[in-house]
Amino acid sequence: MKKKILIIGGGLSGIYLGYLLKKEGFSIKLLEANDRIGGRIYTKNSHTTNVELGATWLWRYNPALLKVCNDLNISLFEQNMDGDALFEALKSSTPQHFQVPKNQEISYRIVGGTFEILNKLKATFTEDQIELNQKVLKIDEEETTLKVTTKTSTFIVDFVISTIPPQVLVNTVHFSWDLDSDFKQIANNTHTWMKDSIKFALVYKTPFWKEKGLSGTGFSNVGPFTEMYDHSDFENTHFALMGFLNGGLANETKEYREEKIQEQLFKFFGEDGKKYLSYEEKVWNEDQLVNFKDDSFITPHFNNGHVIYQQEFLNGKLIIAGSETSPKYGGYMEGAIYRGNQVLEQLKSSFQ
């Protein structure tokens, strides 16, 4: 247990792995390239209201994640779907009212915001165990250890666990040895969840949609937003709508996207829709820590959980983890937890 383990990436995968390994007595250090932890969990406070611009929901079929929430005393609440939903089929047509079927799988949100998971996990770390603004540039293999180099620091460790998206790893970190060609090819063709998404949120003074008998749920074939949901908090004291924009708007300006959303909000809700207090968005393909830009299209979840990620590299000194490597629910929060549990068992067995 005196072995030193360095974790690359401070998203849910990395923070949860650090939490597990610390409980088992391992010596850990976690490096995060960003100035915040969370990765694709991004709870932003806007006009005193928490809005999710990253991972948002979990479901009954997420047992590993539900167990973590239970262990950390994190409360959940149902996504509000009460009232009529709206569907826009054509630009020339008025959005139609419909009822979401009652037998739909219930989506749950986290009281206080998704980031609450990270807050609870991070509370178990000491101040020196997480370092922000530490982008890993190079990994060298030495006789019995690995040397990890960032712009400002060098770390000598026994094991490295990467939790960043595999495609980002093989294209942004230099290795002193030749990567296995099969691994490199698979990594370059592994889809990174969220990288194609544009999320937006609108904060309002009142939940005017509820007063109109609406759930806040909306779908559109013509955009700019393709789907939208009530995003008010558990206490019903802060009110918002949140959803996804058409990915084709990624190359437009924020001002252009907001202008088009205003037009669509008017069509859905009248003047009330345009009276928001703040507009927030996150274009995930602009985030270089999530998306390695190239010209190829990768089908969502393609190669997530590929068997090659379960292999040992450098005689077990390098482990490729993270949600995309999970054989179950790859890309999702559940996948991050499932894969973290796998890696813990892998490390424990190697010391038996």
UniProtKB/TrEMBL annotation:
The protein depicted here goes by the name: Amine oxidase family, flavin-containing protein
Q: Which residues form the signal peptide?
A: none
Regarding protein family, the annotation reads: Belongs to the flavin monoamine oxidase family.
A single Pfam family it belongs to is NAD_binding_8
From the UniProt record, list the coiled-coil ranges. Answer: none
**MF annotations from Gene Ontology:** oxidoreductase activity
InterPro entries per UniProt: Amino_oxidase (IPR002937), FAD/NAD-bd_sf (IPR036188), Flavin_MAO (IPR050703)
SUPFAM superfamilies, per this entry?
A: FAD-linked reductases, C-terminal domain, FAD/NAD(P)-binding domain
Gene3D superfamilies per record: FAD/NAD(P)-binding domain
Give start and end of each Amine oxidase domain: 90-341
